[in-house]
Amino acid sequence: MEQWYVVRSKPRQEQVALENLQRQDYQCFYPRLRTMKRVRGKRQPSIEALFPGYLFIQVDLDTTNTAPIRSTRGVTGLVMFGKDIRPISDEIIAAIKQRTDDLDIIDDEQADFEPGQQVRIESGAMQGMEAIFQEKSGQDRAILLLNLLGAERTVVVPISDL
Predict the structure, then answer these.
(1) Which residue in 15, 44, 70, 146 has the most C-beta neighbors within 10 A?
(2) What one-character DSSP code corresponds to residue 124?
(3) Domain housing 44
(4) Which CATH number goes with the domain that contains 88?
């Protein structure tokens, strides 16, 4: 029975691994994320791996030899837990695929916060703190309501930090 497994690629060679695995008629899934990235001080659109260094492959390990997968250009091997290769549930793959477009790309939702939505600051000086999204301030910044030192304060942070 065919199941989904995780393939580890060589650093920044997910696309090479994908193309070479597909050339060998393997069913693969490589989810990517469309986002805005700051390059030399300017925000530019970028497409990055959703899971850097990994992609998914659907095979039947009972009938498929994994040696060609491991020796594929761009591939390090299948992800193993001890000596076992464990499958990924179809529900997880389906949930990721549901959010992707025809090119397996997910749009970054960082700019789609709703007023009143609880957010977590993931980087910057206030990393790890939770706040309430108030509104966008320009394209790159967000105004948040933050409980700081026992009082609610309004702070402005880059949207990319959320």
Answers:
(1) 146
(2) S
(3) 3-107
(4) 3.30.70.940
